[in-house]
Specification:
InterPro entries: Alkaline_phosphatase_core_sf (IPR017850). 5% of the residues lie in helices and 29% in strands. The protein has one helix at 7-10; strands at residues 21-24, 35-38, 42-47, 50-55, 74-75.
């Protein structure tokens, strides 16, 4: 992970800084999800005007889109 030791994370240390990762695919023919933002707990995916938000701690399989709980977006069906 960018040259950082995973020891604090493995040992459940409170000293693990939450980080955000951004992805964007440029090749449109290949895209299934052209953009995403994630941190330790959430994953937000964007496809056109559709958005999906997943709580990765409660739903690691990304089965339940919770974006409507926040009153925004057009959920991916």
């Amino acid at each position: 992970m960018h040259g950082r030791s995973l020891t604090p994370l493995i040992q459940n240390s409170k000293d693990w800084e939450d980080r955000y990762f951004f992805t964007h695919h440029v090749i449109r023919d290949f895209d299934t999800i052209p953009g995403a933002v994630r941190n330790q707990q959430y994953l937000l995916t964007m496809k056109g005007k559709d958005k999906a938000l997943f709580d990765l701690t409660q739903d690691p399989g990304q089965n339940f889109n919770i974006i409507s709980e926040f009153g925004c977006g057009h959920p991916i069906s």
